[in-house]
Amino acid sequence: MNTIDSMLPQRPGSASESRSGFTMAELLAVLVVLGLTGSVMVTSLAGTRVDLVATQCRNHLKQLTMACLMYSQDNRGYLVYNTDGGTAGRSSSTASWVAGWLDFSGSSDNTNVQMLVDHDQFPYGAYLGPYLKSPAFFKCPADKSQATIAGVRLPRVRSLSMNNYLGRNSRTWASPSRYPLCTSLAQIKYPAGMFVILEERADSINDGWFVSDPDTRWQLIDYPASYHNGSGNLSFADGHVETHRWKDPRTNPILSNGQLLPLNVNLPGDVDIPWLQQRAAGAQSFP
């Protein structure tokens, strides 16, 4: 009696005429597919990594801004001190939210995290330390700048600065300025449109004071950072954080490691400058 298998018609290439293994063409096709899949996965993972760093940075700015608001609530509505200069945060006359001056020298200011969080050791600086115990909040993870201390390359501790139009002890660049300096929360008229803290370029940052001059058209004094695919993060007085893409390449010049950038330049037509100036001044309308 015939089995069912024996009654089925046989075709070329059926089990009765099966081949072992793959042809070269099939093997190449499989390798190409695997290669493309791996490429997509690597690209996806790289994108995820970039997004993760940007998210971490936004969280750092968010936490710092919340600490500023809590400080204000604990100090009769006054904003934290925000002083410029090489002695910022070191004396009663130069009190500032962070102490220290960053550069590419062998100064310990570049690596001293206590200047950011230890208010007991630096009573005229590190004002947000009681609210944020970790120095990691003061730096964007994408900032890889270093300083050489005693022959050893070490990461610098800070990549964030505060708007010069905010804070006690602060000042405007132009004197007088058409835009008011805010030393208390109540003086901020447009919280959603006034930035508090932003990322500053490694070759621009020094004290914790980011300077804008909205009184002078096209004037760029300090440079914002663009660590996130040509974009930088800014926090605002209402607590939200924005990622802004800079449009003019002059706002984002090539970074030369270990070399400071010439500051206080006039760049006619750079559309990034009025965007930044308006948000520094907290102005709802701007020339």
Features:
alpha+beta; 287 residues; 4 helices; 24% helix; single chain; 12% strand; disordered N terminus
List the helices and strands and how they pair.
Layout: H1 4-7, H2 24-74, H3 114-117, E1 146-149, E2 152-155, E3 160-163, E4 195-199, E5 209-210, E6 219-220, E7 231-236, E8 241-245, E9 265-266, H4 272-281
Parallel strand pairs: 3-5
Antiparallel strand pairs: 1-2, 3-4, 4-7, 6-9, 7-8
Quick gist of this model?
The chain has helices spanning 4-7, 24-74, 114-117, 272-281; strands at residues 146-149, 152-155, 160-163, 195-199, 209-210, 219-220, 231-236, 241-245, 265-266. The chain is an alpha+beta fold.
Number of alpha- plus pi-helical segments: 4
The neighbouring-strand order within the major sheet is 5-3-4-7-8
Helix/sheet category: alpha+beta
Q: Report, as a whole number of angstroms, the end-to-end distance.
A: 98 Å
Order of H and E elements: HHHEEEEEEEEEH
Number of strands: 9
- Whole-number mean pLDDT: 88
Number of spatially distinct domains? 1
Please describe the biggest sheet, giving its number of strands, its sense, and whether it closes into a barrel: 5 strands, mixed
Per the principal axes of the C-alpha atoms, what is the gross shape? globular
Helicity range:
10-25%
Cα-atom Rg, whole angstroms? 28 Å
The amount of beta strand, in percent, is 5-15%
Description:
By secondary structure, the chain is an alpha+beta fold. It has one domain (38-281). The chain has 4 helices and 9 strands, in the order αααβββββββββα. The protein has a 5-stranded mixed sheet, with helices on both faces. A hairpin with a 2-residue loop joins strand 1 and strand 2. It is globular and about 50 Å long. The N and C termini lie far apart (98 Å).
